[in-house]
Fold this sequence. Notes:
Blueprint: H1 17-31, H2 34-40, E1 45-46, E2 49-50, H3 51-72
Antiparallel strand pairs: 1-2
Helix pairs in contact: 1-3
Amino acid sequence: MRPGPSPRLRLTRPAGKRERLIAAFLLGLALFSPPLLNVASRDYMVAGIPFLVLWLFGGWLALIVIMALVVERSGDGD
């Protein structure tokens, strides 16, 4: 007879603000890492704006929105 999984070892979604902020930080590291910036720095224009500029400002905006949602989320008992 094989023992079942221990209830203490169950994986759950990160529930605390700290975990979400760490995830946002890691997303920022990934967005602004040199390999992805090299991909974004191609000679490609979107509405006359270089894609790299859109990548940088769009990533920055996304991180600000994510951080605001995490910090302002109510009812999170961290």
